[in-house]
Amino acid sequence: MNRNIKNAISNESWRDTKAKYEKFLGIDSLNKLPKIQEFSQHRDPMLLANLLLTTYLDNLKKIGLNYVDNARIRRYYYLVFASGHERGLEFWRKVTTATNGGQFNLMGDLLG
């Protein structure tokens, strides 16, 4: 999501790409997001990435997936988990957190 998002926000010739982002995020217009223009011009790309991630997670909740979380995969990706049941989130957290011995469960090598 980070690679082309700035162009999609600021460049009219990228409208097809912008439409794909909007459809994925479940929003009518990227330009209506608070602070989108400011964050798209900022030197720190994580501001924009976090705004888009928050928007996506909020929209998952609107469709009934009230138990959401995410894990950053190195510095490149976010892995998003969404469930309609609390037990799903419990399982997610077990496989994405360190054990008492400091080792990660199922996904430990990916995270971090």
Strand and helix map with partners:
Layout: H1 2-10, H2 15-25, H3 36-41, H4 45-62, E1 67-73, E2 77-83, H5 86-95
Antiparallel strand pairs: 1-2
Could you walk me through the main structural features you see in this protein, from its secondary elements to its overall organization?
The protein is α+β, with helices and mostly antiparallel strands. The protein has 2 domains: 1-63, no CATH class; 65-112, no CATH class. Helices cover 48% and strands 12% of the residues. It contains 5 helices and 2 strands, in the order ααααββα. Strands 1-2 form a two-stranded antiparallel sheet. Helix 1 (2-10) crosses helix 2. It starts with a helix and ends in a 17-residue tail after the last helix.
